[in-house]
Amino acid sequence: MTESETSSETFLAQTVDAAGHKERLDKFLSHHCPHLSRSRLKSLILQGQVMVDQEVVTNPALKLKEEQVIELEVPPAEEYLVTPENIPLDVLYEDEDLLVINKSADMVVHPAAGNWSGTLVHALLYHCGDSLSGIGGVLRPGIVHRLDKGTSGVMIAAKNDYAHAHLSAQLADRSLSRTYQALVIGRPHPRIGTIDAALGRHPRDRQKIVVRQQGGKEARTHYKILETFGEALSLMECKLETGRTHQIRVHMESIKHPLIGDPLYGEQPTKTRSLLKKDLFSAEVQEACLSFPRQALHAHEIRFLHPRTEDEMSLSAPLPEDLQKLINLLKNNGN
Question: Are residues 34 and 163 in the same domain?
Answer without folding.
Answer: no
